[in-house]
């Protein structure tokens, strides 16, 4: 991977992390864990890979991104704001009355959000439907979708997977945020995944790429580039991530949602700003 591009994407990921904390911090509580684990993937997708235009958010041949784990809305809002869909500060209205930035992503509320999500599992089916729609209509572009590892408890995810393989959707890429934690605790304790999510998706007919470090922009970028070469099959990219990555009050606990004190918010945002400055100057 080009050194400059890697640096730029690392900076973008750090900016997304900082803004995600500021967005959730504006409300005082929210889904820090599952937002922060996705920051690097969002940086790769919106920073380099995806064919999107903030000035023309609905352009027909755009790539789509469906955050099926819709509770990660804040990382989406941070990314879209930094990308130029709206001033990122607009999202400091998270989950307030009449906000355009609800806790879970809503395509009728927020510019740049391709699909409404929040009921776990549904986004995966919606994304597969969008990919089929592109094929049927001959519209170029890839549909990227992110599900959580806890979300994979939903049968609907597997119906979507079966459908994606059946229809040979090589315009569909499924990210699994394998952060090992879900709402009630460890995924392995709540509902374990047998031989693993990779093995399951392989059995369903996906081209599977498992990343040792799903918070590494280079590994994510290389996987997406490899997915683009695959024909006649959907690709799944398994992101072994850290829940809460970069949020000092959440990273070690892997907390699902957080409501730290104002002092803890201030400290976390200061640490995140310092991390951004360090990467920028590297
Ligand atoms: C159908 C459905 N059931 C339950 C919930 C409540 N819920 C929201 S997030 C979550 C846990 C999801 O865990 P995971 O997919 O691992 O998310 P992440 O770790 O990426 O935050 C649950 C049970 C929901 N949103 N939808
Ligand atoms: Mg999880």
Task: Write up this protein.
This protein has about 280 residues and is of the alpha/beta class. The chain has one domain: Thiamin diphosphate (ThDP)-binding fold, Pyr/PP domains (Rossmann fold, 3-Layer(aba) Sandwich), CATH 3.40.50.970. Helices cover about 45% and strands about 10% of the residues. The protein contains 10 helices and 7 strands. The protein has helices at about 5-25, 30-35, 40-50, 75-85, 120-135, 155-165, 185-190, 195-205, 215-230, 260-280; strands at about 65, 145-150, 170-180, 180, 185, 205-210, 235-240. The chain has a 5-stranded parallel sheet with strand order 1-2-3-7-6, with helices on both faces. Strands 4-5 form a two-stranded antiparallel ribbon. Helix 6 links the parallel strand 2 (about 145-150) and strand 3. Helix 1 (about 5-25) packs across helix 3. The longest helix has 25 residues, at about 5-25. It is globular and about 50 Å long. The relative contact order is 0.17. The mean pLDDT is about 95. The structure holds thiamine diphosphate and magnesium ion. Magnesium ion binds near residues 150, 177, 179 and 181.
């Amino acid at each position: 991977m080009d050194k400059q591009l890697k640096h730029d994407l690392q900076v973008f990921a750090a900016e997304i992390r900082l803004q995600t904390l500021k967005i959730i911090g504006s409300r005082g509580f929210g889904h820090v864990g599952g937002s922060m684990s996705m920051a690097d993937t969002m940086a790769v997708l919106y920073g380099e890979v995806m064919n999107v235009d903030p000035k023309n958010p609905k352009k027909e041949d755009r790539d789509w991104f469906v955050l099926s784990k819709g509770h990660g809305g804040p990382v989406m809002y941070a990314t879209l704001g930094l990308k130029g869909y709206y001033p990122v500060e607009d999202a400091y209205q998270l989950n307030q009355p009449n906000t355009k930035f609800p806790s879970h992503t809503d395509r009728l509320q927020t510019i740049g959000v391709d699909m409404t999500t929040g009921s776990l599992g549904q986004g995966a089916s919606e994304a597969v439907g969008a990919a089929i729609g592109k094929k049927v209509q001959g519209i170029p572009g890839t549909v990227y979708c992110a599900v959580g590892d806890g979300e994979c408890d939903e049968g609907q995810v597997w119906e979507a997977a079966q459908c994606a393989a059946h229809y040979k959707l090589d315009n569909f890429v499924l990210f699994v945020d394998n952060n090992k934690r879900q709402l009630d605790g460890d995924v392995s304790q709540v509902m374990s995944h047998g031989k693993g999510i990779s093995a399951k998706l392989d059995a369903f007919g996906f081209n599977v790429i498992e990343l040792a470090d799903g918070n590494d922009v280079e590994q994510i970028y290389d996987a997406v580039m490899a997915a683009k070469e695959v024909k006649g099959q959907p690709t799944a990219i398994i992101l072994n991530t850290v829940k809460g990555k970069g949020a000092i009050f959440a990273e070690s606990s892997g907390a699902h949602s957080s409501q730290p004190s104002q002092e803890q918010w201030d400290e976390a945002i200061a640490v995140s700003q310092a991390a951004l400055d360090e990467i920028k100057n590297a």
